[in-house]
Amino acid sequence: MNNQQQAVNQLTASWNATPNDKKMVYGKYRAEGYTEIIESQRHKSIFDNVGDSAKTNNDKKSCVEVFQQMGLDFLPTKRPINFLGNDGYSKEIPDFFAVTNPLNENVYQISKGQYTPVNHIRIAELMDTLGREVRHVANIRRGAKVFAEGMTSQQEVTEGDAINNYIVFFNSHDGSSSLGVALRQERYTCSNQFAFIQKTAGLKLRHTSSIDGLSQQIHQIINNENNKFTSNVSDLKKLYKKELDSNGFKNLLKSTIEEIYSDRLKGYKTLRNGQKEKKTINNTLSREFHTIINNFKNEDINGEFRQSSYNILNSVTHYLTHQSGRSSNILERNRARLEGLYGGQNSKLINKAREYLLANV
User: Which residues pair with 304 in a beta bridge?
Assistant: First the structure.
């Protein structure tokens, strides 16, 4: 068996409805041999073997069809784990098994007996049942984890600066998440993530369950969050209108970073001479601070630069979406950043920055 856990933790393949649906955030996260499908361009790919040649460019694929095209329609098997005993005979380890891809024998995780795998196709069925057009699918670690996105709405903060609202379904076979649903807001021009709202945290769906009741529950969540999305964009417009003088900008940027990284600024640092000093931005968050300032200098909308609260938010979200990470290993840094955006630490910091800046309008 080929142990999946030993594979580089990267994006194996992605499907995108159009070039605009590609995720800039993936960047260097792509694995060797990464395959990218742009459906609107209809180019040949290693996945074009599922009998869709009769489709025209105007046909839109269902999410189930996309998952089948990408080889994501399988239910992992639970294989017993054996070891060679002192007597030379093979013995089975009780209560543990290997979660294995039946198509290629990849092992995704070692788990206890009560674990129940869920076929990735279930989240595709949910997307189709809700009537949402799939825009993007990410196959992570050769099927160990999957994200599927459908856009629910789009609004502009100002002309030429649009915010997209996505519904995100995710599932894993490696224990990194249960089956779940969330809503995510993203700036169209640069893919900066603005919010991640995981309203169904901890949601689990066994492969024997019906999706009918669940789809109704999710449909209500989408309607509620779409209503809030209009309010959220209105809040961003308030930040856009909040222009600052030089001192006001410096103070607000500094206090925003202190707010979102408050946990890292607690306590004292031990210096080389053994003395201790209180943690500050200068001695603890210097790299983050200067990177965010450089991002701010490059913020312009339609050629106009504004020293606004909105651009402070854009600078922070750009850092957390595309640049953050403390690991010296580039691949690990990109992996942590990507997964941190989907309900992890980075998404929480983005939400925290947004709320703080709104409180200071």
Answer: 301
